[in-house]
């Protein structure tokens, strides 16, 4: 399962990022102010929005514009920490893409709120460990290398949350993407876990040397980082390029709310300049930003918005009939099963890919629930087709599978298929391939577990061949060898 998104160009050719690889290897973006880090993150978010859930930790409110174009829910962080943890749990439950807007808070409050929200994402239940792209802009604010003006408690909470995201988040489906102005300001434990790098314009010697070390460049080559133009980065990593690759980031569809620096002519000056400043002239046309009262959603309103969120469906050109939908689902499941990278990914990642394929074919992302997908995937692994499902005993087979752990259902269905058709007993190697292991001894232990549950009965006939019976279906397999025979090495006769 490979999903490439185009980040820009490299020597005139498209420069692509392997999104599936990024979800397991994480990304670090570094560049001085004005080098184009936020533009890069926006390009990444826009290109990957249809494929993966996104969470943006936004200290300056630059990414709230994603809401209008891509449907992200904006969460103002001026909430209680307990409420933010509840929101984070619902974000993972409903798989909503969100932007945590921290712009109205001071530095210490930003660290505390971000730590609470990241903690809620990290502490989600195992059933909710779906892939999430967690983008943290200005990461040096939340994982500082040295103590600053904030309290030690706030720094400890924030640094712990960032460390969990980058060090332990992968198994929980959290893929960290962090951007920083200076590597020297970022805690080393956080930066060291990234396997992909995009290095932009840098001027300080210590930062250039560290960037060169991360990219495997010689120290004399570090001077190149001073010459990079805005929006130009050097990429390296399994999701980007196996060798350092200069790329130019492509355009974006949404804009930022902050105005960039630009030269404007000064207005014509009036004679009484002092009076313009010290004497009010009627109704004030402008008030400081701190005095502007912007209505904000309460915690309860945001929680309701998260619960009611439904991702936008890609409209199909023509509605599919029931038969066409069934055929399309079967084709997508077969494509998922035949993918050579399937064994390297968890079922939750495969389900993410399945929903994307469904939307691309106009079926809709809710064609199958997660539990139904796991069962259908197990059936596909066992070779169960529509003809087998139409048999009268299939309802009983489905009830037997429901009582088994998810990872054993594919192996059990393969045994059931052989028993119902009277085929030979599957070998240990065949069952191991379905289960996703290379250990035949582990398969024998799992068969013993199924026997203890009373689901199957294993016996060996007089020729030493194994037979597996399914008592509740009153069926058993034909005799078969326990394992595939391999040619023995001939020894020289003495």
How does this model look, in words?
There is one protein chain. The protein is an alpha/beta fold. It has 18 helices and 14 strands. The strands form 2 sheets. An 11-stranded mixed beta sheet has the order 2-1-11-10-9-3-8-7-4-6-5. The chain has a 3-stranded antiparallel beta sheet with strand order 12-13-14, covered by helices on one side.
Sum this structure up briefly.
By secondary structure, the protein is of the alpha/beta class.
- How many β-strand stretches? 14
Low-confidence stretches: 288-294, 484-494
Shape: elongated
Number of helices, counting only DSSP H or I runs of 4 residues or more: 18
Which structural category do the helix and sheet elements fall into? Answer: alpha/beta
Oligomer: single chain
The span between the termini is: 54 Å
Strands side by side in the biggest sheet: 2-1-11-10-9-3-8-7-4-6-5
- Rounded to an integer in angstroms, the radius of gyration calculated over CA atoms is 29 Å
**Beta fraction of the residues?**
5-15%
Q: Characterize the biggest β-sheet.
A: 11 strands, mixed
Give the helix proportion (percent range): 25-40%
The chain-level mean pLDDT equals 81
